[in-house]
Amino acid sequence: MGCFQSKTASVQSPDQEPSQIDSKADPGNGEQLDQDQVPAFKEFGFAVLRAATNGFSSELIVSESGEKAPNVVYKGKLRNNGFVAIKRLSKQSWPDPQQFVAEAAGVGKVRHKRLVNLIGCCAEGDERLLVAEYMPHDTLSKHLFHWDKRPLPWEMRVRIACYIAQALDHCNAENRKIYHDLNAYRVLFDEDGDPRLSSFGLIKNSRDGKSYSTNLAYTPPEFLRTGRVIPESVVYSYGTVLLDLLSGKHIPPSHALDMIRGKNDLLLMDSSLEGQYAVEDATKLVELASKCLQYEARDRPDIKFLMSAVAPLQKQKEVASHVLMGLMKTPVVLPTMLSPLGKACARMDLTAVHDILLKTGYKDEEGAENELSFQEWTQQVQDMLNTKKFGDIAFRDKDFKSAIDYYSKLVSMMSVPSGTVFGRRALSYLMIGQPELALRDAMQAQVCLPEWPTSFYMQALALSKLGMETDAQDMLNDGASFEAKKQNSWRN
Q1: What would the CATH number be for the domain defined by 139-333?
Q2: Which residue, 423, 486, 434, 430, is CA-closest to 457?
Q3: 116 - beta bridge partners?
Q4: Is the pTM of this model over 0.90?
Q5: Can you name the CATH fold of 340-491?
Q6: Which CATH class is domain 1-134?
Q7: Of the residues 235, 310, 318, 442, which has the maximum number of CB atoms within 10 A of its CB?
Q8: Residue 168 pLDDT level (bands cut at 50, 70, 90)
Q9: How does the protein associate with the membrane (predicted)?
């Protein structure tokens, strides 16, 4: 799936914290989502997404679904070397830009290891775009229906069924119970070859339009009757994906059910598998598909039942997905070796930056001459220390407007300015949506401490917020270089 990054205008109110990646353990599989892996959700500028796709070149279209414009997915490359997938819709799909951004931001909070996570959107002029992680190993449709060297092995098909059930269960837990048009094009494979469910399916192609674009033979009966999608419709669509996995081809559910009722269920099985599966396990999946495809929605199982039914059928959990599929694992290479602060700035995670600056405190200025240490105690010193104390408390408590006021007063009182104070005030400006002032302060911090990596990282963050991605990447590289230089000096 393709997704892009663009110039940032924070989706949240300036006084709110940016959305964080959910690092809670997944109750379904006990695994965690690494916060360093997924950038914080943000709003992109259209010019950045256009540049990332070479003007939305037809050569970069990655959608296999056959959907015509304006619902096309492109592969894009950001100036920081990050690949993304971008789905381009139309203004007619979502006339109200605020409603579109709000819907996208809501889906952007639903983070999970089994989802292709949504990392941004764009609602500029007549343009409506969604930006997601890029999945380098194509769709389930490609591996199931259009394979070149070998068919998708049975164990991988079981894993896909299990992982997609886990993804849907997490969406349910996040109160996102409606997934639109679940099919083999919505399942993609990441750099490890693991299957993931596209987050695009959590947002309708149109605010009031159709939720299903596939052949009517695969559409849930209740949608045909009422035009409404209900949670049980998702289970029906999951059943159609099970049919795809079992047969290796598109079989209309009505035809498949006739075969199952006639006790010819094994005739459903993909002949290219050449019997390389346990008949008992295949029979269980056929029965599960039959339950999912019941005409009456109330007769279908729920997602929890699907998970419990499929999980025991996995027999090779220890074998990596890319090995099962015969894929070359695609390494994820950062352009520079970044520290936790550098990574947080690169993914524009303001909350993580705030936490790191709090932990670092003023230790980077130890030994530097500043007006916070006087041999002679004066009332002016007391006033300055109190102002610093109140500023630090406000910064700690995320009262960023008050922090700016106190730090501004402190700067005017100090004869030798503090780089840390400028760094903290820079982040405070970013938190209230004033990146120009943040950039000014980050540059002042560099004047105070010429080789302080934090000042370069903060400049990178402000430049990204201003849509200056190339300059931001240069600053990230400079910060990383000074950090490496400092570490080498410690070793020597």
Answers
A1: 1.10.510.10
A2: 423
A3: 198
A4: no
A5: 1.25.40
A6: alpha beta
A7: 442
A8: very high
A9: Lipid-anchor
